[in-house]
């Protein structure tokens, strides 16, 4: 019976969170009543939800924009923000851009990618996280814990080589620390941090909104970059995607797809 009630509670918070996720686009800004609101959501549930949204965003960006764009001759580069480089951000840097944008706002949400064999030395897993990563590599299950060093609630999720491009780019990169990555390997983790163990409805909503706003910000940076292209052809920005030709979706078209995809998958996972 106890287990049943526990499951019901879990299901309820999951459904409520899904509704937040679906409606996130059109919600009002955070109000001052936050403090008196009931803290209905565990930090683990909220970080799992935003991690799911991140998976969808990153996959959509990697496959539809980078994968589809390359076929149209669009370029993507580590130094995409360099004035002389006419290119868009690589997926890892797209994520870094989202994380930077979140950091600039007032939602205390942390996000980063790390690995035991990173390309960028500052992404090296260390201490407790390096220890926990051994289990993640083994069973691919997320880890939720309180990080004593940073005093932050932390969630780590496996980052898997889901496309041949992950493996070939990392194996061949001049700064790589490992040259035999294989498709399906756990290549690192996506780590999320938040300073409280439970969140109110408004706070949970702000976390998802901060992530979505971050996505829009980086995507807009990419479109701004394109405006300044001098030598490369400029794709037309609007309703169409690179799979249709030399096009890029407008920011609202991109975000709308993320919203639809994440809503669908969240609902499907509820019906399992
Ligand atoms: C075209 C090259 C390229 C592709 C494709 C690529 N990456 Fe990376 N990845 C990089 C670079 C460069 C960095 C370092 C970025 C930075 O400075 O933080 C990086 C960073 C990472 C990190 C953080 C640890 C590290 O190595 O610094 C992980 C984990 C990671 N990528 C996983 C993936 C996965 C999984 C995929 C496929 C879904 C993928 N990457 C696709 C180039 C690539």
UniProtKB/TrEMBL annotation:
Residues 1-25 form the signal peptide. Keywords: Signal. Residues 90-192 form the Tll0287-like domain. Transmembrane segments: none annotated. InterPro entries: Tll0287-like_dom (IPR021796). This is Tll0287-like domain-containing protein.
